[in-house]
Queue: 2 jobs
Job 1
Amino acid sequence: MQRSVLRVILAGVLGATLVTLTVVVPGYGGRSGDLLHEYDAGNRALVDAKLAAQAEARPHTHNDPATKNLVSRAGATEADAQDPTTTTEKVMHATAVAAGRTLPAPTLRKVSIARHYATTPRNRYEMAGGCYALGRSGTWAARTDDGLTLTARKPGRADPLYFKASDLGSYLLYDAQRQVLTQPSSALPLPSSNRATFTDQPTQQGIWRITQQGDGFVLKAGKDAYARVAGDRTVQVLGKPTVFDLRKVDGCKKFPESQIDIKGAPFGGTTSYEEVRGYVDAHTHGQAWEFLGGGAHCGKPWDPLGVTVALVDCPDHQTGVNPLEAFLSGEPAHDPVGWPTFKDWPAPESLTHEGTYYKWMERSWRGGQRLFVNLLVENDQLCKIYPYGPGGDPSAKKSCDDMDSLKRQADDMYQLQDYIDAQWGGPGKGWYRIVKSPWQARKVINDGKMAIVMGIETSVPFGCTFKAGAGPGSPDTPAPECTPQHIKEQLDLVHGWGVRQMELVNKFDNALSGVAGDNASTGAVVNQANFLETGSYWDMQHCDDADTGIHDKDQYAAPSISPEQQDALFGAIGTLFGGMSTQVYPPPHHCNSRGLTTLGEHTIKALAERHMIFDPDHMSVKARQSALDQLEQMKYSGVVSSHSWSTEDAYPRIYKLGGFIAPYAGDSTGFVAKWRKHLGWADPRYYFGFGYGADMNGLGAQGDPRGADVSNPVTYPFTGFGGVTVDKQHAGQRVYDINVDGVAQYGLYPDWLQDLKMIADSQRGDGPALMTDMARGAEAYLQTWERASGIAPDSCRNPGLRKPVGTVRDLLTPGMTTRQVMEAVGQPYTRVDRTFGICAKQGADPNVRVTLTFDQQGRLRRVEV
């Protein structure tokens, strides 16, 4: 059956069973009426033609690049948008970027990640991932029946136990028969009934919390319950502990886990303060399993019981009764088995399944990523509409309040950090490091680890919703609690959590800003949720953008929702569960009349006062232009567009402010084109590096495969950044190949980057330039963050900031930290090994190079001209 016929059928079915069709013409009081009476025949024809064109342009296909690969996904189309940058400026900007690539690069070192296990663990964390025998007083625990008995005279004859960390200091004990030592479900009076036994599947009763006593260890099973050697030498769970000995042995079977398949040590810097290298993802939702009450997302980034529990499908998917996945995928059912087969999920177009399992993130780190922005996300109205809670149980649904959900996700980030630390041998040992300043992030990256920045993307931050005015000209009424003082208090609250990057809006207009909206069917249903939240539909007016091509999302409802539509999950939930109505607006193009409010201006000022990064994505054109006006007046560089939800007029302004831009990742071919376009916008006054916004975990479809039969596929194994060897990734029984699987999950981003290189090389031979700019991405983000923290731009790229040599010498004294030096003379032009390079002036010479040398700890030693 042809797709157009299917769309007509689907439109009819949805119209009859799910959607109440209402036509609303917003503005002038938000009048509603019949479309035929509101528009003349010419306008009706235009509307009909637009709807038909859009329906034909957006078939249900997993290779639709329409929403993935645009430079701006906020409304303006590339064909319409007028680039404000002249051809001469573009050449100058691209030339400056090329010159920046030739500057001295930082010296990188290999960071050892090998684990070395002592014969006896020195603390309660070191045994993670190790193989040990359990014993006491010279006898060792051997397996008898289904449990352990201390009968072996040598550790090598004991039952080897693999210590799989479930948290810091807590473990699953996994034996050579691939079973987990488990405490009894209930403690009965008779000691013989309390024997610890082996079971096939890990459960909460299999988690043992270990504490150290002297040279030995106590295994705690629960409150007042411990592993103890009974009189018959069996290991039981009783009220008093035995202090056990642990000895390293061989013979363990490793606990099931997804593989990395990257060989070679990760890279770090030679000092904690030099220029960093590494890729940056400025926008992903790593804790989206808490999103929408905890029931719409299947799988988790980790689980104390391991991968076999973390990567399972939702119960309602397994019974075949969940309509959301079927509606999004276009398939009546899918194979619900995650681990170990992963037949149907994760996949680039799957919006309801986990994509950022911690081992997949670890693979991206090993492949060169060094900065990850985790956006806490929620939408209270769609959460209320969605009927399921965790496990498919409506009664288990968690709070839909935006701030409650964001707090859960922030707590999850710290729990994940602890979990990863536990795998690597103790607090601070893991590669996942939540950072709260650019200086902390720089140290983490130069240590060879990944800096994790916490951010917010939610529809109603701080409870700052509003109710629309009752009639034409009536002002909106913000929620009573949404006052300037409340906003400051809430910013202090989330700042205390660790939040350092924030958007003001996501899906709804709120008391801070108007929203860009969504188009097609997603827009229709999210617009209805906007009405439920505010009492008003998006006030999208026809706007005359003939000179600029800049506008918000045009409001035409197509008859189907495909996962390639950005944020299609929102629309699918509304359509399936909300009884949504469709709004049809005046002829395009459309601009939201709601802009940046006084409260929004106050919020941006308060963000800057806290040195937080402001993200203008998802704002209406009117609001974003006002926000950038405000930032320009403030001379505030702390602005990042993280996933292509700004319009093209904004990008040059962001670069001129000293901000950072990371377009939506999408398909590899489309991303290469975005990179080339951004080169012409880059401002020569600032260090340039490039990033991407994956937007993974339910809010953005990932890059599709180009196919194994293209002329320039990714060939495995390949050499990745830092000299590592990247092979096809294995996860359980599944083997991933970027050529045929696309970015099925987060671990495929090193492969996607290699695909970018192959495409750029084949098109123009500029693959190395692209990879250099991507590797400079983390540094560019950190330099934007430094400027947001009050550090002036470097004086070499900005001659007007050059100080006399004598002034430089007066400002700098031995022993100053690198931060103190930058506070005095601005950002360095170069940061290589132990030296900073800056520019000054002296007499008739306007360009004097000054070298600042530091010791290993980052204290200033000398100033040389």
Job 2
Amino acid sequence: MNKLKVMFLLAAISVFVTFAYADLLEGFNYASNSAANATWIVGGNDLTTNTATMVISADTTVVAEGNSSLRMIYKYSGNQWYEASITKVFPTPQNWGIYNKYKFNFYNTNAGDSSRLMWYFRLYTDSGYAYRYANYGGFAYPGWHEFTVDLAMMSTDAWVYNNGQYGSCPNLSSVTAIQFLIQQQTGIASGGVSTTYLDNWRGFTKSNLSIGTTLMDFNYASVDAMTADWKANTSSAGTTTIALSTTSYFGDKSLDLYSNLTYYWTNIGYTHSMPTTNMSGWAYFKLWIYGDPAANTTANPLFLFTLEDANLSQAWAKVAMVALSHPEWQAIYMPLYVGDTAGGVNTFIQNTWDPGRATTSIDLSKIIAIQLLEQTGTNGYPAVYHTYFDEIDYGWATAIPFIMTPNVLAVRPSASAVPVTVYSGVGPYTWAIDPGLGTLSATSGTSVNYTPASVATTGNIYIYDATGETATVPVTVAATAAPMAPEAFYHPSLSSKMGKDWSLFE
């Protein structure tokens, strides 16, 4: 994975400025069309079932970053819900469990395609399951458009079927392939042609569109403290014990769960009771798991991350058996809400099987317990599982405004230095200034002092945050300029993502 200091061209001033660091996950920089076609596999049911075609090539003229972009010419059939895809299979699995936000550039040559086409992407993982994000209005933008996808916006792909199940939660620490798809939302008899370009896929560990925090870190002072907090579920299905371990992804402690199962489709594990907690506004959980290669995968093991409400109603997210046998730390992402279902299954499904439990939909505003449960899915195969759990995180969708003061500057040549301060956003911050506009006292931090140039001029001060967002402070240096009172600045790119109208401040 390459560390990229992304450079963007600001056409209005015709100079390059330095952007925030990001991980470049796919640059689409190919020396030839054959190199592009050797990397991306073209497919989709519109091609295999109908008369559609998809042709991809490296394009050096329509580029957002680097030397080239990937051009896709899709001659679609006009049959509703059929699609074409491009898939890149990684030589070795990629650890994308650290990312909470993605950005990429998409170029559409015809905004009229928005009434017919949509795009979405999948991240396949080592279990065969996938995460996805679908954008139903992505073709409405002509020319280059930068799309931002927060982890809280993604869902387990309920349409991906593997090992007898739909939609199990896969492992973002082991992404095996990325797939981009264009689907026909509506049917038209004549079909059509769409030309689009992809470029500059980046990953960010921080996000300005959601807030994540830790629900439990398992850093207990002693085994007694842990066993007082987690209680075993007694069952005739087998035996289970827990221990405190220093095998930890975060370098501290983890919960070591040992399960010996003798009967299938019966859950054993541990329960953590908690004060009634309102999770109705939460978007996802992220759980770190370390498996045991000696686990009996023939028994079709399954891990269930379970929520229980005050009415004893339960819902659980399924984690595929590969997580229980994979000897490395895995970031299991479990969305609380998904927009798509298949086979009647969501990411979290209602427990309607256990006697004595309410079978109504779980009340996320009244959660009183979480459970770590394991089971086997094949009769006649007793199994022993040894699994480590480290840090249960959760997140909720909320825009963090990029706020600074002042929002504009009008100053006289060679005037005294003026402070410019960011007091809301996601740091750390990097600062830059147009050549000839003056100087900044620093290029990092939450506040800098701006000293104006000695001659009349105009330009911008730029602030880059840790999530790939940019804000500008327009500056006018003029002999007749009067100092302007500081004003809060609400970054325009956030106004459409927030629950309030910030248009008065843009």
